[in-house]
C-alpha cells in the first residue's frame, strides 16, 4: 500500500481543475488586538470559498510549528461544524518569536488531506 498521494498541496492544486481551493493559507497576526497578542490564522478557500455543507466541507484544521531550535510542536486542532463554522481559524501563540515556520493540515471530506506552510523568513 502506498501513502504517496495522501497529502496534497500546491503542486496538486496547480494540476487540478476544481474551482474551490484547498491549500491552507497561513497568516501571522502579530500584536493583534489591544493586548498585543500573536496569532497564526489558517484560512482554507481564501481566494475562492470552499463549500460548507454537510455533503462537502472542511472537517478540521491542524497547525504545527518548528522552533528556531528545530523542535516540531503540535499547536492544536480545530474541528469545524459544517454549515455553521467557516474554515478560517486563529491559534493564539505564546512566544511566536521562537518559531521559524508553520505548517497547516486540513481535511476535506471529499478531497482529502491538504497541507500549506509558511517560513517566517519569507515574510
Ligand atoms: Fe473539497
Automatic annotation (TrEMBL):
It comes from Methanococcoides alaskense. Residues 19-116 form the Desulfoferrodoxin ferrous iron-binding domain. Keywords: Electron transport, Iron, Metal-binding, Oxidoreductase, Transport. It holds the Pfam family Desulfoferrodox. Its EC number is 1.15.1.2. Belongs to the desulfoferrodoxin family. The keyword Zinc does not apply. It comes from the Archaea. This is Superoxide reductase. InterPro entries: Desulfoferrodoxin_Fe-bd_dom (IPR002742), Desulfoferrodoxin_Fe-bd_dom_sf (IPR036073), Desulfoferrodoxin_SOR (IPR051233). GO terms for molecular function: iron ion binding; superoxide reductase activity. It is an enzyme of class 1 (oxidoreductase). Transmembrane segments: none annotated.
Amino acid at each position: 500500500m502506498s501513502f504517496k498521494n495522501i497529502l496534497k498541496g500546491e503542486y496538486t492544486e496547480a494540476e487540478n481543475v476544481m474551482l474551490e481551493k484547498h491549500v491552507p493559507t497561513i497568516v501571522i497576526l502579530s500584536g493583534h488586538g489591544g493586548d498585543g497578542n500573536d496569532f497564526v490564522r489558517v484560512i482554507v478557500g481564501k481566494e475562492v470559498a470552499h463549500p460548507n455543507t454537510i455533503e462537502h466541507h472542511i472537517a478540521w484544521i491542524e497547525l504545527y510549528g518548528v522552533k528556531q531550535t528545530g523542535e516540531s510542536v503540535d499547536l492544536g486542532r480545530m474541528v469545524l461544524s459544517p454549515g455553521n463554522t467557516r474554515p478560517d481559524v486563529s491559534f493564539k501563540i505564546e512566544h511566536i518569536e521562537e518559531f521559524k515556520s508553520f505548517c497547516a493540515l486540513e481535511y476535506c471530506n471529499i478531497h482529502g488531506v491538504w497541507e500549506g506552510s509558511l517560513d517566517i523568513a519569507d515574510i
